[in-house]
Amino acid sequence: MKFEDFKIMATASSAPDHVVTNDELATMMDTSDEWITQRTGIKRRRIATEETTSSMCTDVATQLTAQSDLTAKDIDLIAVATMSPDYLTPSVSAMVQGNIGADHAIAFDIDAACSGFVYGLHLVKQMLIANQQKNAILIGGETLSKLLDWSDRSTAVLFGDGAGGVLIRNTAVDKGSFISEDLRTLGNLGQYLTAGQTGNPSPFATDQQPFSPFFKMNGRRVYSFAVKNVPESINDALKQANLTADEVDCFVLHQANRRIVERIADELAVSMAKFPINIDEYGNTAAASEPILLDQLVKQKIIKRGDVIALSGFGGGLTVGTMIMKY
Ligand code: ACO
């Protein structure tokens, strides 16, 4: 058995029912719809009430198998990109595997924050090759609301919850679907964006520092990092693919801030018409943002079979990941 290439067979997404508008946040903290809209492009976000990262990811995985000619038993690999798992163990992916009855699948989580989905595409591709396996589910899923300090207006207005994913098939039929990629990690800048800090309450620990699970971000530093590194990463991936930015049909970028997307479009000298946005509806959903947007674009037939798309994510780590593919 030898497979040679990869294809996205199905896309799906899931989000909590509860919608929180900017105006509602303005009743809870010193902020306004005008500030949030102008600085970020966000108008509202979905916030989990009963939903968890694993429940939304399970919904996505169920939709993915239902859309295909496969059953859960045909899935070989399940990977979930998340920075907000239900537990440190079991992994979200193992919970999904159990929930859908994918008895033959191995499962693991990926933590690369907002770059997690593209890092996941890379890893799933390599594992399908190495293991000579055929069918994988990759999901980006987040419940970022549980990592927010709701008294900190500088971060509480930015993030939202949701999940999105793809069913990937390793196939000898479709040639050249996953065309090129560029992954970067700048760990020396990691302290500009932290969340989920864990302390050590053990009686043997000598350094009992206070710790906080909440987001802390130097927004300006992350902004500068993104507008420099994302265009560089996209250009490097395009160069490897022997393509120009003009030849890309659609740029599916991480939805962190409308202004960042506009700056990246400007740097690449490509019309904003090729940079769809849904941050107004979802806020920043980290690893879930690109697969949720991808699913919307596929369902709206804005992305069609044969289109060249550039997926690019950036964020905590700090990390960047770009993948050029033929849909
Ligand atoms: N409402 C009203 N005022 C606010 C708010 C708010 N929600 N938040 C901050 N302000 C105030 C600040 O206190 C400051 O006031 P001051 O001038 O009196 O001190 C003023 O607004 C400007 O604050 P800045 O932080 O300088 O605002 P900036 O224009 O940089 O926008 C933002 C902030 C939106 C966070 C921007 O820096 C940004 O988008 N950065 C990138 C974030 C990002 O991309 N993260 C992605 C990774 S996320 C991940 O990996 C999980």
Automatic annotation (TrEMBL):
Signal peptide: none
UniProt entry keywords in alphabetical sequence: Acyltransferase, Cytoplasm, Fatty acid biosynthesis, Fatty acid metabolism, Lipid biosynthesis, Lipid metabolism, Multifunctional enzyme, Transferase
GO MF annotation: an example: beta-ketoacyl-acyl-carrier-protein synthase III activity
One GO location term (cellular component): cytoplasm
SUPFAM superfamilies on file: Thiolase-like (SSF53901)
Domain (Beta-ketoacyl-[acyl-carrier-protein] synthase III C-terminal): residue spans on this chain: 238-327
Major site of localization recorded for this protein: cytoplasm
Active site residues of this protein: 114, 254, 284
EC number: 2.3.1.180
Enzyme class: transferase
Pathway it works in: Lipid metabolism; fatty acid biosynthesis
Domain Beta-ketoacyl-[acyl-carrier-protein] synthase III N-terminal: 108-186
Catalytic activity: malonyl-[ACP] + acetyl-CoA + H(+) = 3-oxobutanoyl-[ACP] + CO2 + CoA
InterPro entries registered for this protein in UniProt: ACP_syn_III_C, ACP_syn_III_N, FabH, Thiolase-like
Protein localization: Cytoplasm
GO biological process: one example: secondary metabolite biosynthetic process
Region (ACP-binding): 255-259
Domain characteristics, as noted in the entry: The last Arg residue of the ACP-binding site is essential for the weak association between ACP/AcpP and FabH.
Subunit-structure text: Homodimer.
Family (UniProt): Belongs to the thiolase-like superfamily. FabH family.
Function statement: Catalyzes the condensation reaction of fatty acid synthesis by the addition to an acyl acceptor of two carbons from malonyl-ACP. Catalyzes the first condensation reaction which initiates fatty acid synthesis and may therefore play a role in governing the total rate of fatty acid production. Possesses both acetoacetyl-ACP synthase and acetyl transacylase activities. Its substrate specificity determines the biosynthesis of branched-chain and/or straight-chain of fatty acids.
Protein's UniProt name: Beta-ketoacyl-[acyl-carrier-protein] synthase III
Lineage: Bacteria, Bacillati, Bacillota, Bacilli, Lactobacillales
Gene expressing this chain: fabH
